[in-house]
Amino acid sequence: MSKPLTKRSIVVASGCLMAILPRTGDACTSFCLSQDGAVMVGNNDDWFSVSAYLVVNKRGVTKQAFVPTEDPPLRWTSKYGSVTVDYNAIGIPSAGMNEAGLVIDELFPGALNIEYEPKDERPEIDEVLWIQYQLDTCATVEEVLQTRDSVRIVPYYWHSHYFVCDRTGAAAAIGFAQGKMVVHRLPPASVQCLANRPYPRDLAALQNADTDNATPHKPGSSPARFQAAAERTGQAELSQIQKPHHEYAFDVLKAASTHATAISWVYDPVGQKIHYQTNRDGKRRSVDLTQFDYRSETPMLVVDVNHEQAGDITSAFEPYRPEVNQKLVWQTIKDWRKHGFALHIKDADVER
Length: 352
Known about the structure:
about 350 residues
């Protein structure tokens, strides 16, 4: 017997998915630019694949984190609808924005030795699904930060740190070191950028850039990209820019891009729009979050980020089908194998 549609329940992730999810980029860059009520959040995903889906997630859906231990998993019911960027599998996002204007981007901190919080009584969630949990339940940066007392991140896939921003222009860089969550609140007047090294390291490099003993940063490195984004957001006067604000945000992303930039994203938390451009065809596309019905009685919607249509693709979303996820997961495996990743994963594991 099917469950009532008024409150759907889903268990997120699976054991075999845990083994195949790739990290979301070795050289990503995020920033926030907020002035006079306008807020633009930009992100470059530097990765070898542009295979991904945009997913419309609904309110009133009960979810449970997958943790392959005897410890109690985190359970929650989504309060906000959202649109997420799902590179590896539907339901496991790498970034996204909810209808309250909260934006979260995940960045891979390279080979840094990250030590997460030790085991305690808090329910657990993995470091990727944490993004969906926050978009489901929080409206502001401060609400996200308050959840650290009630939830503990367990690194099942890879190590991550996060750039979080809301519609007020408040932002935060969230990472981990020596068994503690490290939070840097970034008000609009501060440098609201994050690359792949911990925020304080790249901020210090930026502040040292104009001194006599400064050495040039290696092109494409974390401090170089951090500096490129920081300088252009710090110098911006949106009221004087003779172009749409999201177009200027793309200019910032271009300055911070590398040869590996797969997709550039611009989130507009106030206007509730997502703009993006892939390196596959160079076309600009956008999604209007105000046009979706986020009630749980309606189906989850998805669209391939490489949809043939350019411009506004809001109407191109279609109801989710399991074969869509199967296609995405197999493409993930294909990309991994092409680049020498996850060679131990067998076809039977992927099917399961």
